[in-house]
From TrEMBL:
Gene Ontology biological-process annotations: methylation
Domain of life: Bacteria
Organism, scientific name: Luteimonas galliterrae
The entry's keywords: Coiled coil, Methyltransferase, Transferase
InterPro entries with a match to the protein in the record: HemX (IPR007470)
Name used for this protein in its record: Uroporphyrinogen-III C-methyltransferase
């Protein structure tokens, strides 16, 4: 039979175990609560970080768009500034032209005529310099003279005389020297095929006795300045000479006198190699030397004097 004292101790131990169990359960609940709060704080921090990153990215996009709009605005401002400068320059030119036309000492119709005369003289000079167009230059000079005759200002009297002298000198030129040289070169090239390929036969009685004796056995030819007789070599030489003619024509088109004369010198060398010495060959070489001496450009000291005098007169007035 259990004593009352042991029974009371058992109850006390049971109560203590219950208290310990309750305390452990409460501690576990508190730990779970703290863990849930910590996880919630972490999740909230991550969400706030994500929101901050989105905000920063949005700010960066706004900054980039603002920079692009600023660049576009700067470019637009530059374009507008250039347009304003251009408008200002055009306005200044218009004002200058209006002031010149409104000048009582400068009649508007006369100023326009003088401008046309200067334009025609400039066009004539460019035709001569760039294309050697003598006919076009003469027409431009004729039109300029007609306009200049319609100006009744006595200050342009000397200019009319200078223009008449320049027209006379230009009419005296005749044809373009380059065209004259080209025609004569073509005619010279066309006559080369008529040259004799062999020297005239010498009468047997006029030969020395050793040539009459051994002429049918031995053919003696000088080695220096020998003429090409082999058909293949002659064909190659003729082709080379035609190439030199082509180079001379190209030099004529460029008005390159040095290259033109050098090509004709090489043609002369081929003449001595392809055809033997004869009166016809000497005549062709004389014509070739005359061709080399031909001028290729216009040599008129008075050309351009009217334009210079007109510009000097306008600048002085």
């Amino acid at each position: 039979m259990v004593s009352p004292r042991r029974r009371s101790l058992g109850w006390w131990w049971l109560l203590l175990l219950l208290l310990l169990a309750f305390a452990g359960w409460r501690g576990w609940l508190a730990w779970q609560t703290r863990q849930a709060d910590a996880r919630a704080q972490i999740v909230g921090a991550e969400q706030r970080m994500a929101l901050l990153e989105e905000s920063l990215e949005a700010l960066r996009r706004d900054q980039r768009s603002q920079a692009q709009r600023q660049q576009q605005a700067d470019a637009t401002n530059r374009v507008l500034r250039d347009e304003l400068l251009g408008i200002g320059q055009r306005a200044a030119l218009l004002e200058d032209n209006v002031s010149k036309l409104a000048d009582p000492d400068r009649h508007g119709a006369q100023a326009l005529r003088v401008d046309e005369v200067e334009m025609l003289l400039t066009a004539a000079a460019q035709r001569l310099d760039l294309a050697s167009d003598l006919d076009g230059a003469r027409r431009s000079y004729a039109l300029a003279a007609g306009l200049l005759n319609g100006i009744d200002d006595p200050a342009y009297l000397s200019l009319r005389q200078t223009l008449a002298q320049e027209r006379t000198a230009l009419d005296a030129v005749g044809a373009d020297p380059r065209n004259v040289a080209a025609v004569r070169l073509e005619a010279f090239a066309a006559t080369l095929h008529a040259l004799p390929e062999r020297t005239a036969a010498v009468a047997p009685e006029s030969r020395p006795w050793w040539q009459r004796a051994f002429g049918r056995i031995v053919d003696v030819r000088p080695t220096q300045g020998a003429v090409i007789v082999e058909p293949a070599d002659r064909a190659a030489g003729l082709a080379a000479m035609q190439l030199e003619f082509t180079l001379a024509r190209a030099a004529l088109e460029r008005r390159d006198a040095d290259a033109y004369r050098a090509a004709l010198a090489r043609v002369d060398a081929w003449l001595t190699r392809l055809w033997p010495d004869s009166a016809e060959r000497r005549a062709r070489r004389e014509k070739l030397r005359a061709l080399k001496a031909l001028p290729l450009t216009l040599r008129l000291p008075v050309l351009g004097s009217s334009l210079q005098q007109l510009r000097a007169l306008r600048g002085a007035r």
